């Protein structure tokens, strides 16, 4: 599910992968954050358990496909971010999706406790984590994109300006 940003040439720089379609309502937060900053993305379902060969094919070819950052969201026994990270040198941002049984604590622990040598940058559980994954991916890309860095700075300033100091109108 590619999101064509009108004047962005080439392949989308951010891949958003998730273990199930049921993760999309959460992971859409990452896509929305990227879209708001003018960063193109591609989203697809890639399950570590149900479609292991799809995961292998995706992770092995992600760099040559032109992706720069991978955002991976999964819930429960959330092995997708770590397994993706094991097969690519691209930075992987892991989003623990809130699970029904254990409220996402299972997802968080499955993603965050990577062995030394294969990093996954793990975000918060659920919607805040997905939104921040999108923002963090944009911040990584902004290191070599001054125009994007400017849009990020404007976003931060607008966010700061929107926070009222008084507790009532
Ligand atoms: C994980 O299992 C997915 O990432 C999802 O969060 C969870 C449940 O998947 P479904 O049963 O809703 O497809 O692999």
TrEMBL record:
Tell me the Gene Ontology biological-process terms attached to this UniProt entry. Answer: 'de novo' IMP biosynthetic process
EC no. given is 5.4.99.18
**Residue sites binding substrate per the record:** 20, 23, 50
Q: Name one GO molecular function term.
A: 5-(carboxyamino)imidazole ribonucleotide mutase activity
Pathway given in the UniProt record: Purine metabolism; IMP biosynthesis via de novo pathway; 5-amino-1-(5-phospho-D-ribosyl)imidazole-4-carboxylate from 5-amino-1-(5-phospho-D-ribosyl)imidazole (N5-CAIR route): step 2/2
UniProt keywords, alphabetically: Isomerase, Purine biosynthesis
Q: Where is the PurE domain?
A: 12-163
**What EC class is this?**
isomerase
This protein's source sits in the domain of life called Bacteria
Residue stretches spanning the membrane: none
Pfam families referenced in this protein's UniProt entry, alphabetically? AIRC (PF00731)
Q: Which reaction does it catalyse?
A: 5-carboxyamino-1-(5-phospho-D-ribosyl)imidazole + H(+) = 5-amino-1-(5-phospho-D-ribosyl)imidazole-4-carboxylate
Q: What's this chain's function?
A: Catalyzes the conversion of N5-carboxyaminoimidazole ribonucleotide (N5-CAIR) to 4-carboxy-5-aminoimidazole ribonucleotide (CAIR).
The family annotation for this protein states: Belongs to the AIR carboxylase family. Class I subfamily.
Q: What is this protein called?
A: N5-carboxyaminoimidazole ribonucleotide mutase
Source organism of this protein record: Caulobacter henricii
Taxonomic lineage per UniProt? Answer: Bacteria, Pseudomonadati, Pseudomonadota, Alphaproteobacteria, Caulobacterales
Q: Which gene encodes it?
A: purE
